[in-house]
From TrEMBL:
Belongs to the UppP family. It comes from Saccharibacillus endophyticus. The gene is uppP1. Catalyzes the dephosphorylation of undecaprenyl diphosphate (UPP). Confers resistance to bacitracin. The chain crosses the membrane at residues 89-109, 115-137, 189-210, 222-240, 252-269. This is Undecaprenyl-diphosphatase.
């Protein structure tokens, strides 16, 4: 019975990760809350890497055509300097630029941030701040498309992604909010946000592998981790598809309401 309950806990954690990774409500914050409610002290580095990998696979699958186009377009522009590929090349360069702030902050301060800000109170405050930001940009409708982005846009969105290293601050939320605030159209904002997610997530996975190898977590955790991985993979895919529909309709205000409600409840009860 105890073993079954352990499997169920990690299945639930995987579902939470998958459901909250793509949407602007903070997956890290919700995992802290879920672990607290389920009595899981710390899910473990292996769990974090596995579930992040599952979310990454799902999102890369959804954006596989965009990723392929950017790779081909960038290579063709470098090789031929053909103007028709310049938009893809510049978009790829802005993704690289926007990735730098999170990489620098993550390498220098990630451990300190996790120790300092991994409390439920911090998550509650961060959710309230996210809710306010979502409310402020709820009616913005930008005009910038992929080929209209500038150095300043990429840098501002990259800085927003770096801020999202704080648990409770949504990565997708902060980057989508910043993208829309700089004047991007909804679909461009969403695409740029998740193109930024891919290199940062890949980097975190690669950097975490040595720690996983050197960490001896209980062998009995294999099945719980597999359950969490599969749940995260499937749920991330459908959550992302759902969020894309929400973005197309411009209904971000509902996420603002959610952040307000959860943030207030956390401050009251936890």
């Amino acid at each position: 019975m105890e073993e079954t309950w352990l499997w169920l806990k990690y299945l639930i954690l995987g579902i939470v990760q998958g459901a909250t990774e793509p949407i602007p409500v903070s997956s890290s914050g919700h995992l802290i809350i879920a672990q607290r409610l389920l009595g899981v002290d710390q899910a473990g580095l292996t769990f974090e890497i596995l579930t992040n990998t599952a979310s990454l696979i799902a999102i890369m699958f959804i954006y596989r055509h965009d990723i392929g186009r950017l790779i081909v377009g960038t290579w063709q522009y470098i090789r031929t300097r053909d103007a028709k590929y310049k938009s893809d090349f510049m978009f790829a360069m802005y993704v690289v630029l926007g990735t730098i702030p999170a990489v620098v902050v993550g390498l220098l301060f990630k451990d300190w941030i996790e120790v300092t800000f991994s409390s439920v109170k911090t998550v509650a405050v961060a959710l309230l701040v996210t809710g306010v930001a979502l409310w402020l940009i709820r009616n913005m409708r930008g005009r910038k498309q992929d080929g209209d982005l500038k150095f300043r846009d990429a840098l501002l969105v990259g800085l927003a992604q770096a801020v999202a290293l704080i648990p409770g601050v949504s990565r997708s939320g902060s980057t989508v909010i910043a993208s829309i605030a700089t004047g991007m159209k909804q679909d461009t904002a969403l695409r740029f946000s998740f193109m930024l997610y891919i290199p940062v997530s890949l980097g975190a996975i690669v950097l975490g592998l040595p720690d996983i190898i050197s960490t001896s977590e209980a062998p009995g955790m294999l099945l719980p981790y597999v359950l969490a991985f599969v749940a995260t993979l499937i749920v991330t895919y459908f959550a992302m598809k759902w969020f894309m529909g929400i973005m197309a309709k411009g209904n971000l205000k509902y996420f603002a309401y959610y952040c307000f409600v959860v943030g207030i409840l956390l401050l009251i009860f936890l």
